[in-house]
Amino acid sequence: MIQYLSDNFSRLLVLTLGHAVLSLVALLISVVVGVSIGAYVGHLRRYSFLAINLGNVLRALPTLALIAVMIALIGFGFVNITIALVVLALPLILTNAYTAVTGVDRGMVEAARGMGMKDLEILFQVELPNAIPLIMTGVRTAWVYTVATAYLAIFAGYATRPGQLGSLGDIIGNPSGEGTTGVLVAAAFAIVLAFLGAGLITLAERAMTPTGIKLSRSAAMAPA
Amino acid sequence: MTEAHSQRPGVEIEFRSVTKTYPGQDTPAIDNLSLTVPAGDICCLVGPSGGGKTTAMKLVNRLIDFNEGEILIGGSGVRDVDITALRRDIGYVIQQVGLFPHMTIEANIGVVPRLLGWSADRIKARAVELLDLVRLDQNFAKRYPSQLSGGQQQRVGLARALAVDPPVMLMDEPFGALDPITRNEIQDEFLKLQNEIAKTVIFVTHDIDEAIKMGDRIAVLRQGGVLAQYGTADELLGSPADEYVADFVGADRGLKRLSLRLMRDLVKVSGENHAAPADAPTVKGSATLRTGLSVLFASGSRVLKVTHDDDSATVIGTVTLDQLQDAVYETAPKAPTDVVVAGEA
Ligand SMILES: Nc1ncnc2c1ncn2[C@@H]1O[C@H](COP(=O)(O)OP(=O)(O)OP(=O)(O)O)[C@@H](O)[C@H]1O
Ligand SMILES: [Mg+2]
Fold first, then answer.
1. In chain A, what residues touch B100 (CB-CB under 8 Å)?
2. Which of B224, B255, B286 is the last residue of a domain?
């Protein structure tokens, strides 16, 4: 295993970078779409069937089958695997954002409305700041799922080529060529990537959560 | 705004035959409600749980829209002005969760000023002024709500509602979550404050004693949002419109009524009618009739000597047990004779 590592180290690093880029692109698209829709539907506190059903339907799609269908529709490549990963990550982020915003105390929201805040002012100044911790929990989960699934890029025809980074799927999806050791080492790199990213997301969550919310949470958790 | 805390005293609020039926319900939550709150008065809304107090209050800032009738603030209909402008010009205080936990106290107080586009300096200056007004230390400005006690939070809630010096305030059980001592304190302070700023206030409470203390007028609602009686505390206690109101204000309404008046209002100048015996108990002129009665009972005497507030040696006159008893009943012309209330006899 040490042998495999030292023989392939720079290649592993490049593939991990590609894996990270692929996961990150899918995650960012999912965050933009998922948080927007989830938070707005949550704010309306109506059309919840939309958020929940859309989430459930997307989640029921097996990623590999989706890749196969999209090969027929749009062909091989980066777009194919990115769409597949977005379909995986989006429902997690969307339902979390929806739940986070609907979970904001109704009394507080009504106080905001009573004071003359308009809908978007309520969403941005009251609901989202209070919903950040739960939204970020969804983003973190989605990141881990995405990294764990991105190796399927190899089946979507996205592999290392000149001008293309590829993913750890190059190794994980090729056990006959790389051997069990290779698959295990590549999987370990993917796990490290997942944890690193999750750690960074936690840091981002801390930075984004308003001080007052942190204080009220620690106050709530302090022993009586 | 300058040093003066308030430059915009209250304006009249009028409900004209207002009816509200929630969608999908057969009976109205507010049924043909008509009442006028004079400018600068506190109107307490009391009634049973589900009686429509909160609904009636929210109709004013249109958090809930009514089906029929009209509500006028300072003579103009609440539906004739922009809903956002209407709400920003009405102070709104609710129980518990009113404050935004993610904002500092200063930012909480500055919410409506910010919405109205005040400059940062002006908002800061106003926050300083308001913290003073609600008697909170200036170093609270940078703290967060979770770092304040319930009573302090409620003071901030008051300050926030007063931020743009609105003529009208809506308060939904604002002191309901506080312990009795803090509640009493903050009630007193609010009354003192109200003496200065003279806002028109709609104050929802389910506590009749709080209503008697706070309300210039009290509106008693019954189940179904029907107005049972509207009047001063003295009117409600002295002549409840019916058994329901009599029941609601309590069997001890005679005693409560005695709490509304002071000994000095009842004093007869010594020597005119009753020369007080030398051993008669004394009580200050600023004591309530209820206190006087209690002192009288404790002493076994039938006459009280009333003294000057600052000088307990100066007797300003006397009050007899009969006078106190009369005070329970007088100016109660509308009292229905068929209603017998326990404790009144
Ligand atoms: N959003 C709503 N939709 C439907 N019905 C409602 C709604 N809000 C209140 N009601 C009903 O209207 C009636 C009056 O409610 P309201 O909240 O005004 O009572 P309240 O006097 O404030 O009671 P409490 O003392 O419990 O606060 C109740 O029967 C209640 O169930
Ligand atoms: Mg209520």
1. 108, 112, 126, 212
2. B255
Instruction: Read off the tokens for B247.
Output: 């029941």
Range of the domain at B218: 3-255
Phi, psi of A128 (to 5 degrees): -65, -45
**CB distance B181 to B102 below 8 Å:** no
The answer to whether the CB of A94 falls within 8 A of the CB of A162 is no
Q: Which of A113, A121, A212 lies closest to B103 in CB terms?
A: A212
Q: How far apart are CA A202 and CA A140, in angstroms?
A: 8
A134 touches chain B (CB under 8 A): no
Domains, in order of start, for chain A: 2-221 (1.10.3720.10)
CB contact under 8 A, A108 and B98: yes
- Give yes or no: residues B127 and B227 share one domain: yes
Q: How distant is the alpha carbon of residue B39 from its chain centre? A: 14
Q: Hey, whose CA ends up nearest to atom 8 of ligand 1?
A: B55
How does pLDDT run along chain A (224 residues), one tens digit per residue? 788 888 889 999 999 999 999 999 999 999 999 999 999 999 998 887 877 788 888 888 888 889 989 898 898 999 999 999 999 999 999 999 999 999 999 889 999 999 999 999 999 999 999 999 999 999 999 999 999 999 999 999 999 988 889 999 999 999 998 899 999 999 999 999 999 999 999 999 999 999 999 998 877 666 54
Whether complex ipTM tops 0.90 = no
Torsion of CA A119, A121, A125, A131, to 10 degrees: 20
Q: Chain B within 8 Å of A105 (Cβ-Cβ)?
A: yes
Residue A131 Cα to ligand 1 midpoint, Å, equals: 28
Residue A39 burial by Cβ neighbours in a 10 Å radius (0-12, 13-18, 19+): buried
Query: SS3 of B306, please?
Result: strand
